[in-house]
Amino acid sequence: MSHDHGDGADHAHAMGPTADASVRTAKPTDAPAVGVVQAAVWTQAYAGRLPDEVIALFEAPAFAKAWRQSLESPPEGVHRLLVARAGEQVVGFAAIGPSQDPDSGQACGEVTAIGVHPGARRMGHGSRLLNACVDTMRGAGAEDMAVWVLADDEATRAFLVASGLGPDGAYRDRVVSPDGDTLREVRLVASLAPDDAAPDDAAAEETESGR
Question: Which residues are CB-neighbours of 53 under 8 A, at least 6 positions away?
Fold first, then answer.
């Protein structure tokens, strides 16, 4: 991923700390902005975890192209891309879909990606995105939700745990490079039953990593 799309300091300054914050369903025209955010987030998240030549392939235009294609021709099932905005500027994103885990029931939804630009963190965008994911999944009939997170990404895990998710003991080793390099991920889950507590905005915001 390239840093040429804007560094965190400039991004935060452009937004302004008091800009109106919101979350909405993404449109195909949001794809370039989501690509820029994902490039910044993934570069930071995988630095030191993946070979430099692999990270160099993570470019904003490639992410944008993939998101545009999925928005214009969505896969089967309930798939949504949500964007967090500061004013009119996209500063974060989250993607949800049916869980593909063989041990999950048909009513389990998964947050397949979530990220907030490094220059827009600690402003509640991650919490708003996660809550929007919960609302969307519940509206689609999901009873449980799952998120896979890097096993050594303590900041993201803390954010998700503060939001009401917890590890269920499942893990996987994902191949992340042509040479067969793997990274271990662990699964965090939560019930979406109405009687269960919703994600805690205040607690999550304090530990928000936005990965």
Answer: none
Q: Which amino acid is at 132?
A: A
Give residue 108's identity as a one-letter amino acid code. Answer: C
Domains, the chain, ranges and CATH?
20-26+80-206 (3.40.630.30)
Sign of CA dihedral 157, 162, 163, 169: positive
Enter the pTM of the model.
0.82
- Nearest Cα neighbor of 27 from 61, 67, 77 is 67
Residue keyed to tokens 């993946």: 50
Q: pLDDT tens digits, the chain, 211 residues: what are they?
A: 233 333 333 333 344 444 589 999 999 999 999 999 999 999 999 998 888 888 988 899 999 999 999 999 988 878 999 999 999 999 999 999 999 999 988 899 999 999 999 999 988 999 999 999 999 999 999 999 999 999 999 999 999 999 999 999 999 999 987 888 899 999 999 999 876 554 554 444 434 444 4
Tokens of 149: 């997170």
- Which residue shows structure tokens 């009939």? 141
Q: Is 161 exposed, middle or buried (0-12, 13-18, 19+ CB in 10 A)?
A: middle
CA-based nearest residue to 92, from 129, 136, 59:
129
